[in-house]
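Quick log. Single chain, no ligands specified.
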Amino acid sequence: MKDYSPITVINVLSRKHFEQTIVIAGNDGLGRQIKWVHVVEVTNIRKLLNGHELILTTGVSWKETTDICLSFLQQLIDSNASGLCVEMGTHTSTIPKEMIEHADKHQFPIIIFQKEVPFVEITQDIHTYLINQQYKMISDLEQYAQSLNKKLLTTDHYHEILQFFQQTLDTQVIFRLNEHDMEYFPNCSKKEKEKWQKLIKHKELLKTNSFGSASVQILGHEYAEVMILSDNQTLNEFDFLLLDRTSTALAQHLLRDLYVGEKKRIQDSEWILDWLNGQHTNEGILEYLLDQEVRTNIEGGVVLVYKYTSSKQKTALDSNYFKLLFRTVFEQQGFTAFLTEKSDGFIFILLNRRSMKTWKQRLSSGIERMRESEFIKKQNASHIKIGVGKFVESLNEIHKSYLTAEETVRIQKKMGVVKPHYFYEELHLFRLISIMNKQVDLREFVLEYLHPIFEYDKRTNGKLLETLRIYLACNGSKQETAKRLFIVRQTLYHRIGKIEKLLGEDFMTPEKRVAIEFMLLTYDYLLPIEQREINVELFNRT
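-> predicted structure:
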């Protein structure tokens, strides 16, 4: 580890021109960092400082007045100055006791020169040191970056980058890929690993100068984390700059690996299609997963179908980028993804690596993160359909999840739901309607129950269908129904009276009410959303 420790007040005391100095206050603050030296001979200094300045003064503006001295000192403390150096004899002969006590209280160093000193030479000396140190640090950082770039061209594994980083720093480096165990460079004993893990778990116990971490970002999401820790050395600015460069290099290397892996997965697409069609045994699937180096602690799986309906959208969609984004998001949610691409979208097999109790919640979070990404927002969301099939515990039943995922998308297209139901298990009655519609003509059933309402609304624009929907949704509460329809109760009573005449006074009895509600859902399913106005002739032709 190269020493780029910041220059402090105590370091300055050993330099030229500081031989005849005495620290009269703030000994506990001698470790304050110095970033610049400033000569000040005015009392209003607050707006002139940026922090970490060592102040040189003759005290000519004080006139040894206690109030002015304390005001001047407080401004330095508030501005986070490093310390105050006063030349005694020329304009100032004493430092007020109150000023010394106040500086001690705030651990702010006050240093006195016992004889006249050249302020110009002091500032030149310290500034030269600071500039040279900064230049050397930038030069070494550039040299490290060049070496890192060369490694990126030849390295086969990210371990080589981390080993190079550790050898440069000569401190403990820890790396963690999402959903993977921590890796240690250099490797250490189990006892040492437990010590580091304990420190990382309680980061608030670590001093800020002994721990550092950087996120490895891929496609706008955290993919990994690099950490540096030291229990016997102080980490400096140079160490943190190296950490930043290394995390960027790791992101480039891992992204390259992901693209290469994506190309390989395309070759596996035919095998995955057979899997989706139920042509593989459980033993064959497990063997395939081992070949893909997938952990065997799989707790079931589910299929997600992602479809887009616009041809322009299809040509604009960067398939590789989308697939990498998808994998990154759902890996973080505890899924291993396998996919195949079709002409109208993608099919993802998501293998669950965590508790089955939380799979749906985690999958929902992943879908929302995808929809909120800038990449997806650029697509026309109204032309995107996402369907999640039934969750299966046995991997040789993935084809069942695939069929139900496709059915979910078909129902979504029919319903045109503003807030889509992504999950097959949330479709409930719509699943039953879809099955029944394949066997019988449901339009006759709908008209048998609702034809009088259709005819009345068509003839009078009476809004009885809307009233019926809301009245049923409110469980027969007239007050709530009137509120949701924005009408007075008298108007509602009139409409309900009309509904009773058309459907029968028993329309709210349990069995008939269930049938009517079912027919309303069936009507929505059968009639396209853009044509969902009361039009009996159109409905008859649908």
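The CA atoms of residues 64 and 201 lie 53 Å apart.
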